[in-house]
Amino acid sequence: MLIFLSTEATDTERGRILDFLNNLGVKGFPTRFGGRSVFVVAEGKPFCSPGDPVFQEIADLDGIDDVVPVTVPYPLCCRNLRPAGSIIRALDFSVGNGTFGIIGGPCTVENESQTLETARCVKAAGATALRGGAFKPRTSPYAFQGLKEEGLRILAKVREETSKDSKRKGFGFSPRFVRRLVLPS
User: Fold this and answer.
1) Distance linking the first and last C-alpha atoms of the chain
2) From start to end of 42-87, where are the E strands?
3) Confidence of residue 25 (pLDDT cuts 50, 70, 90)
4) Helix axes 149-163, 175-182, angle to 10 degrees
5) How many CB atoms lie within 10 A of CB 7?
6) Distance between CA 41 and CA 46 in Å, rounded?
7) How far lies 10's CA from each of 29, 37, 66, 121, in Å?
8) Counting beta carbons within 10 angstroms of the beta carbon of residue 80, is it exposed (0 to 12), middle (13 to 18) or buried (19 or more)?
9) What does the pLDDT average to over 82-111?
10) Residue with more model confidence, 163 or 8
11) Integer Cα distance of 39 and 25 in angstroms
């Protein structure tokens, strides 16, 4: 289910909503959807239909504007809930709303020369952006975890290099953007 918060919802109300959900044995994941604050609750719970009394209890909590039942596994990208589609922006390019992006590159940033050579090849092939992981979370602490901050520095340098002497800007990269996509908040 999607729980749309009112624009005036306080932090206290948000906390009470999350506590209520936790007491039901479910977790609400905060996000933004259509410019609004939303808690996404895992699908398949028995109270996820409007006829259920718990559904109505949730809808009546302070700080909630609307509760929408969801029966699809990926509600934030479902065409039924977002018919206009999504636009994903990263610095100087965007994907969606009629634009198409091609992103290429290695799974992991391993060193500067490999990343720079790959970026030049991917850019020459017409790609929109370079991919490459600086942080590689693993279950084993002994497995390669990525270059972390050094990987971010390499990506920043590669962006500068791929921007030189070119009418087309380098690949979109920002540590702020990468942190949002990769690291838990």
Assistant:
1) 22
2) 64-68
3) confident
4) 130
5) 8
6) 12
7) 17, 12, 16, 49
8) exposed
9) 81
10) 8
11) 15
**Environment class of residue 122 by beta-carbon count within 10 Å: exposed (0-12), middle (13-18) or buried (19+)?**
buried
CA distance 123 to 72: 36
Half-sphere exposure of 103 (CA within 13 A, CB side): 16
Residue ranges per domain, the chain? 2-77, 88-182
**Across 126-184, where does the E strand assignment appear?**
129-130
Tokens of 129: 């952006």
Angle at 154 between CA 164 and CA 141, to 5 degrees: 165
Using the predicted structure, report yes or no on whether residue 33 has a pLDDT greater than 50: yes
The yes/no answer on whether domain 2-77 falls in CATH 3.30.70.1140 is: yes
Q: How far is C-alpha 157 from the chain's CA centre?
A: 24
CB 145 within 8 A of CB 137: yes
- pLDDT tens for 106-161 read 889 999 999 999 999 998 898 888 888 888 888 788 888 889 889 988 988 888 88
